[in-house]
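Methods, example record. To illustrate the input and output format used throughout this study, we show the complete record for DUF5360 family protein. The sequence lines were provided to the predictor; the line carrying structure tokens was produced by it.
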Amino acid sequence: MNAETTWRRLKPHLWITDFGFLLYWLLTALTAIPPEYAFKDYQNPVLVAWNWSFLPLDMLASLTGLGALLLSKRYDVRPLLLLTLTLTHVAGLNAIAFWVITRDFSWQWWVPNVYLMLFPLLFIVPILKSSVQPVSRPRDRVVQL
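The corresponding predicted structure is encoded as:
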């Protein structure tokens, strides 16, 4: 997969994931997630703390992803892309690992977190292999980070 194709395929994932993180945390802060859709033991203070411990990780993933999207016209954003994809992968992996350990298999929480864990893996290697910018533009206008 060349850099142009990688970037074209990655952009929708970034928009959906990064706004998804922001939406999830807004709904969580407003306690707007109905109990029937919440993860098991959602009212347990330890699990509430565990959930909130993901806020910095998710926000950093979201901000670096949105930053890469917004800066891609002027800068080589591959370092930001690698950072956001790694953070996103770790967020999904950590949640899935916890639910495996606790034997909590709820598809409503597994599907989005398996997505967070797996989709970055499709793009990390092509980005590392790329020797051209993620979007086409005159080379002399690109400022390397």
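Annotations derived from this record:
The chain has one domain: 3-31+45-130.
DSSP finds six helices and no strands in the chain.
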